[in-house]
Amino acid sequence: MLTRLEVDGFKNLIGLRADFGAFTCIAGENGTGKSNVFDAIQFLSLLADRSLLDAAQEVRGVRGERLGDPRDLFWNGYASKSHRIRFAAEMVVPLETEDDFGRIAIPTISFLRYELALGYVPPAGIEKIGRLTLLEENLRHISLREAPQRLKFPHSTAKFRNTVLKGRRSGTAFISTSIEDGQPIIRIHQDGGSRGQPKPAAASRAPATVVSTVTSNDDPTILAARREMQSWRRLALEPSALRTSDRYVDPRSMDSTGRHLPGALYRIAHRDPDSDPERVYSRVANRLADLDGLKVRSLRVDQDDVRELLSVQLREASGLTLPARSLSEGTLRFLALCVLLEDPSVTGLICMEEPENGIHPGNLEAMVSLVEDLAVDPMEEPGEDNPFRQVIINTHSPAIVQLVRPDDLLFADSTIKQMPDSRMAHALRLRPLAGSWRGRLGETVPVTKADILPYLTTPPGANLRLEIA
């Protein structure tokens, strides 16, 4: 669970600090840079799994394409001679995970702060593209005594905080950086504290972060941080993927595009040999029926043993059976989220852009309710019926803003900031609503209902008019 994100120098995120709860809605007009928050989260997740260059090329570039120049990541990458990005992420990590060899790893403590600084080295010789360089990497614990002040969103102490925060640590960081002979040296410190010597490595030529290289339970807390960051996903549901049937040999987990939806639903329905699959199908069908205009009688996964295919079939109240490929884009996206809601194995952070896309205005309330229900209830103990899952959405829809609880809202706008070289830059600003838990922290000037009233009010010229001859 990502509880706090700090970013400086990444695209238009300059001095950004944001605290997150179980569910967060980032709302604002197009062009403010809301998606850059998701890019930063996705970049950290990729860095936990891939090389610096591969992660940089996977993140959305300044012109929206993949495989961009690494300078796209920096706020003024093509004009500046000094490149530096800083990240900090405070997170609650899993209490138990598996290493790459299937062995159990239990972290020393489950509340951590990860810090990372990256620079840029221009191309040299026959190279045509520059590379990122690792300047600093740290992983430290957050004392459980600090938890009441650091875990800032409303939650139950007994049922939630005392359940997800465990362990203790004193003194030494798990990863630290020092400067020796003018060069950054990164060290891994064992979970046992003073036992053994820290393992040093020069950072300047490192092709990847230290976190991404830890694969065994020898360093269980670093591994837990890696697994947590790997679980941060950006959901970009695509109708073409959602309409695809699954072969029997295909994976049984839905990916970020929605592919393998039939296989995932089939696995969820049959995960317990003693349970009735029809109960799962019925719950999904009942939630899907929240959409106005869709008269759902039942839903199931059809098994075609001849072609060895799994496909989702929906039966309407009229008796008509529809395959998934016949459903509208909005219905398919809603169905995918209904399936995720039933899957306790999907944990971690889900980022979703504009969930209102393809949804009729009359069904926005059902969509908001669904994405809110995907997130863990911090007033209850996480478990099979309350998966430890976090959700962040962004939107430019005034209707969504009016449906979301004030405590869950961050309002995005643009502000001017002066950089160290005296240049002025347009930067994203995230402001909480006055009176919300974030608004009471005092770190950012909150907005009031009066501040966002122009955004919530439809402009007079925006109404559609029918000309009658």
UniProtKB/TrEMBL annotation:
The keyword DNA damage applies. Gene3D superfamilies: P-loop containing nucleotide triphosphate hydrolases. It comes from the Bacteria. The keyword Ligase does not apply. GO terms for molecular function: ATP binding; ATP hydrolysis activity. Residues 277-401 form the ATPase AAA-type core domain. Keywords: DNA damage, SOS response. GO terms for biological process: DNA synthesis involved in DNA repair; double-strand break repair; SOS response. This is ATPase AAA-type core domain-containing protein. It comes from Sphaerimonospora thailandensis. The lineage of its organism: Bacteria, Bacillati, Actinomycetota, Actinomycetes, Streptosporangiales.
